[in-house]
Specification:
- The chain is mainly β and about 325 residues long.
- The chain has a single domain, classed as Outer membrane protein (Lipocalin, Beta Barrel), CATH 2.40.128.
- Helix content is about 10%, strand content about 50%.
- The chain has 4 helices and 12 strands.
- It has a 12-stranded antiparallel β-barrel.
- The N and C termini lie far apart (about 45 Å).
Length: about 325
């Protein structure tokens, strides 16, 4: 029943996007490449969400491709960016070399996801929409064991992990995400926004609410990328971003296993052990010069299951426009 509610909310938002009248649009006339590396080694731990690699590429040429046209038509006073992305994430228990008993610990799991996405920012209404649809794999074929042990070869004091024999079995993933942001206060040095997120599919089902604060010497949040003469590359920017999200969790395949081969898993977290509400706080320090940006991020996550611990991990973002 919960999946039906979540999917219905997504399609209501999509219907709202299509129902608006098509008018003039600001063109995204440059390409953009984002690379994010997340790992808990920055916090000297090696558990739970332990490594993530996210790569995203956007180009105005994607707007002409049929699949991207399914998102929504362009509308008045907004900036549209179309892109593709890949993400690979690895999750492990605290006791990574235990082949028998993983009671009250996170199961081994990893997944790979390929996505198409569209971001829209509206300067007049001070709002933005992000819509993403993706497919991928969860399980052995996502190669989490091989990638983690490769990373451990380059980190002193880390032995190969043998507990991957317990990992969640292969599953096909289908994922839909929608994020809506609404700005309530904007100035030269400070922005305050509220946001809502919906995610549904065979990877995760959840609803989230949160807030975002940006402060410092920063670009205009809604007009920074409308045309090349106004983009970030015209100056130097140093600013911070603080974000808080609270999610109601209906399903998480990285904890409970997938829907097709759930009974074949050696160990998973049962649905009644998964926390109904999970909270996440993140802060980043961002440096921008001309067409390049580097960001340093820190995230704190509350316990995801009964008996679990809060978790922290760091990240680095590299961004370029051309």
């Amino acid at each position: 029943m919960s999946k039906i509610v979540i999917i219905s909310l997504i399609f209501l938002n999509i219907f709202q996007l299509f129902s608006q009248k098509e008018e003039s649009v600001f063109a995204d006339d440059f390409k953009r490449l984002d690379f994010i590396l997340e790992n808990d080694v920055f916090n000297r731990t090696d558990r739970y969400y332990t490594n993530g690699i996210i790569l995203s590429y956007s180009s105005p040429a994607f707007a002409e491709i049929f699949l991207f046209g399914l998102f929504s038509p362009p509308k008045h006073d907004q900036f549209d960016r179309y892109g593709i992305g890949i993400a690979h994430k690895i999750y492990t228990p605290i006791d990574k070399n235990n082949l028998i008993d993983l009671e009250n610990d996170r199961p081994f799991s990893s997944y790979f996801l390929f996505n198409l996405h569209k971001e829209t920012r509206k300067s007049i209404s001070k709002s933005s929409n992000y819509f993403q649809i993706g497919i991928g794999l969860l399980g052995v074929d996502a190669k989490g064991e091989e990638i983690q042990n490769l990373i451990h070869k380059f980190l002193s004091g880390n032995n190969p992990v043998v507990g991957w024999e317990n990992q969640i079995k292969n599953e096909f993933l289908f994922d839909i995400q929608y994020i809506y942001e609404k700005g309530f206060f904007h100035s030269k040095y400070f922005d305050f926004l509220a946001l809502a997120k919906v995610q549904a599919g065979t990877l995760k089902d959840n609803l989230g609410l949160g807030v975002k604060l940006l402060f410092g010497w920063k670009p205009n949040y809604y007009t920074q990328n409308i045309k090349k003469s106004n983009k970030l590359g015209e100056g130097i920017y140093i600013f911070s971003e603080i974000k808080w999200n609270s999610h109601w969790i209906a399903y998480d395949a990285t904890l409970a296993g997938g829907v097709l081969h759930k009974e074949e898993n050696i160990f998973v977290i049962s649905s009644n052990q998964i926390e109904n509400f999970v909270h996440k706080a993140a802060i980043s320090l961002n440096f921008r010069y001309k067409n390049y940006q580097v960001s340093f991020m820190q995230t704190i996550l509350s316990s995801e299951f009964d008996g679990g611990l809060p978790h922290q991990y760091g990240g680095i973002l590299l961004l370029t426009e051309f």
